[in-house]
């Protein structure tokens, strides 16, 4: 890989380290609220963090001239802001007064049972995401690494932008299915799964059409280099198709997690993304 790209990536990764802890805390808080069907506070805190993030990026990248370091630091700070806002809500809100009992030793009693579910669930997502990240790394070995890395990074950025929609549906259907099955209502769980699948198919078609129709526009949003714009335009139909099927896969993964099939999902993702892909 090109030395400049490697150095920049390494610098960015080092300054992103604080966000790893914040992201872990954030996911715990998010799942705690999602299982209680408490959504609006998370939307509000994420919106506030996003607005602050824009300001932080401007200050750190341009005013302080930190460039790559500034973008990573802005991400880390924004994650921590989101964590603090949600944690504050959990602490003071009456909605969580009966479910949040502060930290006690009793929370450690079911750690092994928790790990039996959480580790395969994490592997399901990691085996998938690592495959996409590996594509960017391997693109640095191609004849024109700067062009190939730029184009593939932009493709994955656009892909990830719309993947958030299906990922949200995946999280929602996972919780809905698990809650309904836990309440002894399998028909309601099945209906939730069908509704999520219909929604993600419709969303995938609309997003795919949007990607293809605007294939000559996406590149100019990210770069002024004509070669990058042209290459990206040729890639967008493939990205659109991939986005559609990945959205369906994300929702199916959410259904599997809701049913407690994390280990099976991890094996399937290992075979499909890492061995075949």
TrEMBL record:
GO cellular component: membrane
InterPro entries: MATE_euk, MATE_fam
Protein family (similarity comment): Belongs to the multi antimicrobial extrusion (MATE) (TC 2.A.66.1) family.
Superkingdom of the organism of origin: Eukaryota
Pfam families linked: MatE (PF01554)
Keyword Transmembrane helix listed: yes
GO biological process assignments: xenobiotic detoxification by transmembrane export across the plasma membrane
Compartments reported by the entry: Membrane
Protein topology in the membrane: Multi-pass membrane protein
Species the sequence originates in: Cucurbita moschata
MF terms in GO: antiporter activity; xenobiotic transmembrane transporter activity
Chief localisation class: membrane
UniProt keyword terms in alphabetical order: Membrane, Transmembrane, Transmembrane helix
NCBIfam families the UniProt entry points to: matE
Membrane-crossing segments per the record: 38-61, 73-92, 122-142, 154-173, 193-214
Gene name for this UniProt entry: LOC111429678
Name recorded for this polypeptide: Protein DETOXIFICATION 16-like
């Amino acid at each position: 890989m090109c030395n400049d790209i490697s150095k920049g990536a390494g610098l960015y990764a080092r300054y992103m380290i604080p966000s790893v802890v914040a992201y872990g805390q954030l996911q715990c808080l998010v799942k705690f609220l999602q299982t209680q069907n408490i959504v609006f506070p998370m939307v509000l805190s994420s919106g506030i963090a996003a607005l602050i993030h824009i300001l932080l990026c401007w200050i750190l990248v341009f005013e302080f001239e930190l460039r790559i370091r500034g973008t990573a630091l802005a991400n880390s700070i924004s994650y921590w802001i989101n964590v603090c806002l949600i944690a504050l809500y959990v602490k003071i809100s009456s909605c969580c007064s009966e479910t949040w009992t502060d930290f006690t030793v009793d929370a450690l009693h079911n750690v092994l049972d928790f790990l039996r579910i959480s580790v395969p669930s994490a592997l399901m997502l990691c085996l998938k995401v690592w495959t996409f990240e590996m594509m960017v790394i391997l693109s640095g070995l191609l004849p024109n690494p700067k062009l190939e890395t730029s184009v593939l990074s932009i493709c994955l950025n656009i892909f990830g932008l719309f993947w958030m929609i299906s990922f949200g549906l995946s999280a929602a259907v996972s919780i809905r299915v698990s809650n309904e099955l836990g309440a002894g209502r399998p028909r309601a769980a099945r209906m939730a799964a069908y509704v999520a699948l219909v929604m993600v198919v419709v969303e995938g078609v609309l997003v795919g059409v949007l990607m293809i129709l605007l294939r000559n526009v996406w590149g100019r949003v990210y770069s002024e280099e004509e070669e990058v714009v042209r290459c990206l335009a040729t890639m967008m139909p493939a990205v659109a198709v991939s986005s559609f099927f990945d959205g369906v896969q994300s929702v199916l993964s959410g259904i599997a997690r809701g049913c407690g099939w994390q280990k099976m999902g991890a094996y399937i993702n290992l075979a499909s993304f890492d061995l075949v892909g």
